[in-house]
Amino acid sequence: MSAPADLSPRTRPLLTTAVPQAGGLFKATPEDFEVEELPAYLPSGEGEHLFLWVEKVGRDTQEVVRALAAALALPEQEIGHAGLKDRHAKTFQYLSVPARCAPKLTDFSLEGVTLHRPTRHGNKLRPGHLVGNRFTLRLHDVQDVGALRASLEVLEARGLPNAFGAQRFGRGGDNALQGLRLLTGERLAKRPSRFERKLFLSALQSELFNRALIARMEADALDRALPGDVLRKEESGGLFVCEDATVDQPRVEAWEVSATGPIFGPKMRAPTGAVAEQESALLASVGLSAEVFQRGRGETEGTRRPYRVRLGDVRCEDLGGGGVRLAFSLPSGSYATEVLRELL
Questions:
Q1: Closest residue by Cα to residue 35 from 341, 336, 338, 342
Q2: For residue 307, which phi and psi values (nearest 5 degrees)?
Q3: Please, are residues 322 and 314 in contact by the beta-carbon 8 Å criterion?
Q4: Which tens digits make up the pLDDT trace of 173-213?
Q5: Which of 21, 165, 228, 310 lies at a CB distance of 3.0 to 4.6 Å from 272, suitable for a disulfide?
Q6: In the predicted model, is pLDDT for residue 64 greater than 70?
Q7: What tens digit of pLDDT does each residue of 117-146 get?
Q8: Quick one: which H or E segment has residue 97?
Q9: Which residues are CB-neighbours of 26 under 8 A, at least 6 positions away?
């Protein structure tokens, strides 16, 4: 099976298109971009692991993990983290280490990184042990603060389209195509590492989700329940299939449930009816079937991803002279850059 000529990321419509764009610039620098992890739980004060609240500037999570492992004479796998943070920001997040290593923490030193409030806990920190992230951004040269606030009101009411951001697809935008080639058995220019393999396959799933989201937005159905949809309960994350849209639509409007899109794989909860037909057509458009994701083994198990997510605790401060300080929280796995795309 040959790969399609183009699996590059597609341009998505804006939910805020009816509002005049605010204009302005965002500079992805530590001075203008602060990210604070919102943990799923706090350390208890007892246990065989030590949680560290890590403040870092100009360093990504993997750099800190490597340096910390070297200082503590540990394999990197023994350093726990809930999520990955990049270098182009001032970030705060928890890392965990075995509590026996506490005396060696004084040996750790890495420019731009500070360790705060070491606290014991009963388990190692693992990926996904977080609720989301709190973002604080400074915008420059905003032309219309009123329009920016109006766009924020739209996003607060209807939700943020939960697209995967451009960083998911690599600098050349071809990670998804590489993932497609892996699944269909084509030979890549060089054999990918385990990390690259997972990255490419995830990018393929992400691009297919984004295309499903585009179709959803073009149908003006981001915040609608359709018969056959797989709906997700906002509070518990539980999934169920919509059998009667007239029953479920009020729950969508009340932010009790949201429609989900496909992260294709054998463990994905399948929709029914016309929604299932649309997802099958999406796969066919790139020459795939649902069964092919079994070839990805544990790397393409599949799940459902909400088409929209809720912005939390939104704050917008006019600093004058075109400067705006913007703050909001998002669930884990959602992208602040998608908020900026809607606003600017």
A1: 336
A2: -70, -20
A3: no
A4: 889 999 999 998 888 888 889 889 999 999 999 999 999 99
A5: 228
A6: yes
A7: 999 999 999 998 999 999 999 999 999 999
A8: strand 90-98
A9: 32, 33, 137, 138, 139, 140, 340, 344
Q: What is the pLDDT of residue 314?
A: 96
Reply yes or no on whether 86 is catalytic: yes
Domain with CATH 3.30.2350.20 in the chain: 41-128, 146-309
Answering whether pTM is above 0.70, one says: yes
Q: How many residues does the chain have?
A: 344
Domain spanning 41-128, CATH architecture = 2-Layer Sandwich (3.30)
pLDDT value for 84? 86
Strand partners, 324: 139, 318
Cβ neighbours of residue 239 closer than 8 Å, sequence gap 6 or more = 230, 231, 232, 233, 260, 269, 304
Q: Which residue, 250, 249, 229, 253, is CA-closest to 241?
A: 229
> ∠199-335-15 over CA atoms, to 5°?
125
CB contact at 8 A, 39 and 115: no
Class of domain 146-309: alpha beta
User: Which of the residues 6, 32, 60, 86 is marked catalytic?
Assistant: 86
Residue type, 125: L
CB 160 within 8 A of CB 341: no
Tokens of 244: 């009667």
* Cα 116 to Cα 152: distance, rounded to the nearest angstrom: 34
Q: Has residue 1 got a pLDDT over 80? A: no
Look-up: residue for tokens 């669930």? Answer: 331
First vs last C-alpha separation in the chain? 41
